[in-house]
Amino acid sequence: MSLDRLIEGIVRTQNPAVVGLDPTLDYIPGFLKEPFLAEFDDPMEGAAAAFLEYNKRIIDAIYDIVPAVKPQAAYYEALGWQGVRALCETIRYAKGKGMFVITDGKRNDIGSTMKAYASAHLGTFGAAGKQAEPFGGDALTVNGYLGTDGIAPLLEVCDERDRGIFVLVKTSNPSSGEVQDKLCGERTVYQMMGDLCETWGGEHLGKYGYSAVGAVVGATYPEQLQELRLRLPHTFFLVPGYGAQGGSAAGIAGAFDERGLGAVVNSSRAVLTAWKKEGCDERDFAGAARREALRMKEDLAAVNKAIHI
Amino acid sequence: MSLDRLIEGIVRTQNPAVVGLDPTLDYIPGFLKEPFLAEFDDPMEGAAAAFLEYNKRIIDAIYDIVPAVKPQAAYYEALGWQGVRALCETIRYAKGKGMFVITDGKRNDIGSTMKAYASAHLGTFGAAGKQAEPFGGDALTVNGYLGTDGIAPLLEVCDERDRGIFVLVKTSNPSSGEVQDKLCGERTVYQMMGDLCETWGGEHLGKYGYSAVGAVVGATYPEQLQELRLRLPHTFFLVPGYGAQGGSAAGIAGAFDERGLGAVVNSSRAVLTAWKKEGCDERDFAGAARREALRMKEDLAAVNKAIHI
Q: For the Orotidine 5'-phosphate decarboxylase domain, which residue ranges apply (chains A, B) (predicted)?
């Protein structure tokens, strides 16, 4: 029933937003990254240390006004295991600040393998009488191309540990239609995937009418967003593509239900690079991130009035 | 043009097989794992050290008779970043022994993010004038649900660094048909995905007629395997599902072309747990893995005669 904690965070902050923690060295001001890059011989180790410190400062600047963060695994894997360590530590830090953490990994595989991904990202590892949390996120993005086998092991962990998943339904990228918009009988592939989300979530309903199985639906496709909101009444949406990818607040309006719930909207680049766009002192990069997060909150509030349970 | 190196390895060893390095603590004999689990306070660190030592001994036992290994990322992520470090070190060790390494990550995302995955798994990372290889695999498994945007960044790295990818087309699991077998017009979803592989690989053909874009097609669906071999003449297949999942050598026969090329068949559990099935001394676990790999080679040779370029 995990998405309930996300929903409660949205109501508490009156902000249906998630900040994507997708760092690259380009986004990080020189004063912060240069000492780390100079300190370590291995460029991945230096960059990973810079990523972690940068993330912590962004989290410190937004945790009271934004309910969730979404670190994108790819940007950490780009620094090898050293980057993955920074990902684990970022997740732990955000959770320590009370944020809901969506690990954006889009994992997918056969059942036995998905069991390993489920315990990696949402569960625990135990050996020799000791337990540990490998990644420790609250929710994981996943791909449903393999069908029910690849989803069922996640649902077990979601039930046991109050976690959630978001399944790719209609993605925000320009070529998403190549496969997702194809018509199979009377439904498109993305509609069929959305219907599967309703099926998979069916027995895992939370207090507010939404299940532990959410869907990823891009802000760049406003019509499909509205259509899917009506079609999938128990499926909470994670909406990427706002801002840098071209999605607008007006286009997102259809993603919300009459309580202002039903969706959490992601912004990554616009928040992380706000200091560049503002042209402020680079030492104020986290302040600029907070100002952009507040601007986004106002922008969303204009189309999505008082949020209530 | 990366799959050429895989093809040459298959011809050299006369063995179209890849061993899946998917360790779990259950597979590892007590004499090998117990000291590591006792040595480290963190159970993930102890297990990761055991995974790495286990993998090295398996690799030592098979590298002269099997051309490739396929570590499955999920089993390493299940041990957090400590496990991911063991994955990176396993890849480096296998490459040092001359093996072709397929990182089984089934990664997928929008273009900008896929660029990060491409450099993580097949490319390099550079900062402050220094370069490093984050994971260092030769090929990566990927999911094509997001269409061309999610594949194009991989192809750039494949061209620059002689690497390859395998796109999920028809997976080996029981529920793969829920999405993949649906009919869109005159084609099933998996046929459409297969056709996309031919398109994506079109400009990236190697010396032996196969492109850098391979496809994952399960041994558990023999009819589709044969049908796709004819339909996708330039697409090399990675065939999971042999052995433990129920696929037989006879069922795989249709995956090969008239030269005995066209597919590489994966076995994970049967090789890794051969010592249990044999009931041999646990200290001979790597010897048992080699005997099972030789048995599999013979089994495949019965349906796939002398392999030549």
A: 16-283
Contact predicate A259/A232, CB 8 Å: no
N-term to C-term CA, chain B: 15
Q: What is the pLDDT of residues B82-141, one digit of tens each?
A: 999 999 999 999 999 999 999 999 999 999 999 999 999 999 999 989 999 999 999 999
Q: Does residue A309 lie within any of the structural domains?
A: no
Q: Is residue B309 part of a domain?
A: no
Q: Rounded to whole angstroms, what are the CA distances from B76 to A18, A96, A115, B21, B37? A: 28, 25, 12, 10, 16
Task: Give per-residue pLDDT as tens, A150-172.
Answer: 999 999 999 999 999 999 999 99
From B120, which residue of chain A is nearest by alpha-carbon distance?
A78
CA distance A197 to A210: 11
Specify the number of domains making up chain B: 1
Q: List the 5-24 stretch of A: residues with Cβ below 8 A of B.
A: 22, 24
The yes/no answer to whether this complex scores an ipTM above 0.95 is: yes
**What range defines the domain where residue A59 resides?**
3-301
Q: Tokens in use for B185? A: 């017009």
Burial class (CB in 10 A: 0-12, 13-18, 19+), A278: middle
> The CATH number of the domain where B163 resides is what?
3.20.20.70
Residue A36 domain-assigned (yes or no): yes
Contact check, Cβ <8 Å, A125/B44: yes
Q: Residue B1 — pLDDT band, cuts 50, 70, 90? A: low
CA angle, corner A21, sides to A288 and B153, nearest 5?
Answer: 120
B205-228 average pLDDT score:
96
CB contact under 8 A, B125 and A44: yes
